[in-house]
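Memo to structure team: turn this sequence into C-alpha cells by end of day. - J.P.
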Amino acid sequence: MLIPQLQKLLTTPITQKNRQNKSRLTVIFWYGLSLTFALAYILTGLRQAFSSEYIVSDDAREYISWMYRYFNQDLFPGDLIADYFQSVTPIGYGILYKIIAALDINLIFFSKVFPIVLGLITTSYCFLVSMQILPVPMVGFIASLLLNQSLCIHDDLFSGTPRDFIYPLFLAFLYYLIKSSKLGILTVIALQSLIYPLIAFIDLLILFMRLFRWQNGQITIYQSRKDFILFAASIIVAGIIILTYAIQSSQFGPAITAAVARTMPEYWHGGRVSYFSHNIISYWFDGRDSGFFALITPLQLLLGLLLPIILKFQSHFLLTKQIKDEVKLLMQVVIASLIMFFIAHALAFKLHWPSRYTHHTFKMVLAIAAAISITLILDAIFRWSRQNERQIFILGTIVILGVGLIFYPSSLKVFPKTPYIKGQVPALYNFLQKQPQNIVIASTSEEADNIPIFAQRTILVGKEYALPIHTKYYAQFRQRMLDLINAQYTEDINQIKDFIQKYHVNFWLLERSAFLPEYITNNTWLQQYQPAAEQAKAKLEKTLPILPTLINSCKVFESDNLVLLKTECIKLVTKT
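Reply from structure team:
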C-alpha cells in the first residue's frame, strides 16, 4: 500500500475527474511547502542584511543613493553620478521608491525586506505556471525549489535593483498568457516596461510568435482578431512607456559602440564590465554579459534539457499524456530570448548586455522543464517498480531525489549568496553628514563608494559608479579619474590646487597604502586609466608625491588606513 500512496502523492495529476477535497489538500500541501522553502531561503539571506546598521546590497548603491533626493531636494547638487543614475533608473522603479520615501520609510530597509514579497510572488507564479503545463503539484514544488535555489546562488533576488522584479513579473506574464487573460497580460507588460523594460521585448516577441501556427510543415497565420488586437495593444502600452524611458535616459548621450568598447580596457578581463574575451567559446556561451548561457546554476537545472528527449518517447513515459499543449510556450520563450540576445549583440550596446535576455528567462524555463522531467522519470520508475515488485528501488530513488534536491544548498560553501556589503567606517559617514550638503569628496579608495548612500554626500568618482555605457557620462567620469590620479601622485602643488579648483573638491579621502607602487599595480580599477596609472606608478618608484606629506597638517579625520584631508588646508600650502 505504501508505493501506491506515494505515487498518488508525488505524481498523480489533478484532473477534472479527481478535483476533490483530497486533491485540493495535495495542492495546498505542495504549494505550502514551496512557500516554506522560499521563505526559509529569503530569511536566511536577510540575516546578513540586518547584521549591522551600515549594510546595503552592492548594486543598490547605484540606484538608491540618488533617491535620497526624495527626502531632501538639496542633496547631491550638480552631482554627475547622481544625475546619471537618476536618468537611467527605470520610471516605475523610481516611482516605487518615491512612494516609499513619501511614507517616510527608510530606503535601505525597504530594499532589504521587499525581496520577501518578490520571492513569494515568484514562487506562487512559478508553481501556477508549472501546474498549467503538467497538473501535478510536485512539479510546481520542484520547479519553484530549483528556481529559488538558483536565485539565491546569484544576486537575482537580493540585489535591491530593478532586476529583482524580472522573475515575478515574467512568470506572471506566462501565467496570464496561458490563462488568456488580456487584462493580466497588458498589466504585466506595463509593469515590466516601467521597471525592467528589457524583458518586455521578449513578451512582445512571444505574443508575435503566437500569431502564427505550424501546421503540416508550414507556417500559417492564426486567424484570431483578438490575438492581433492584444498584440497591437501590447506594443502601444510597451512602446509609450519604453519611449518615455529612452528619452529620460538619453541626456547622457548614446551608448558606446562595440568598436569603441573594444579599444577600452574597461570592457576586457579585469575591467569594470569584462564584456569581451579572447576565448570565443566563453564570449558566446558563458560570458557574464555576452554569453547566452551565463550563470545557469545549479546544475540540476540542466535536467530540463531532457524534456524534449522524453517527449520523443512518450510510450515509455505515460504521464506525458497529461502535459498540456502550453508546454510549447517554454520553447517560445527560448526562441524569443535568443532572438533578443542576437539583436542586442548586433546593436551593442543600445539594448544593454545581451546576456540579460537569456540569463533570467532560461533559468525559469529550465526550472520548469527540469521539474517536469524529474516527475515524468519518477512516474515511469513507479510504474516499472510496481510491475516488477521492486519497492526498495523506488523508495531508494525517492530518498536520493529528495535529499539531492532539498539538501543541495548544504553542499555549498555559501548559501544563499547575498550581494551585501558592509560599510567599514561609520565614523566617517557620520563626520561627512555633519558637513554642508554641497561638499565634494575626491578619492581612489573603494570606501568612497559607500559615501553617497551612507552619508548622502557627493563623491567625484567611485569604482561602483564607473559604468562605461553612455558616452557623455563616461567621458566626464573617465576624465575625472585621469585628473584625480595625476593630481594625487604629482610633485607639483599647483597641479593639485588646479584640480581642487576645477572640480570644487572640499575633502580628499586617502588610503595610506595608496602611495606604494603595488597599490596601483594590484588595483585593476586604476589600471583601466592609462597612461595616468603607469605614470603614477613610475613616480612612486622614484620619489614620494606631495599629497602624503600633507597628511599630518591637513587631516580632519582618520581611521586605520583611511585619512580625510581638508582641501582648504591644501590650498594654503606654498611648497613647490
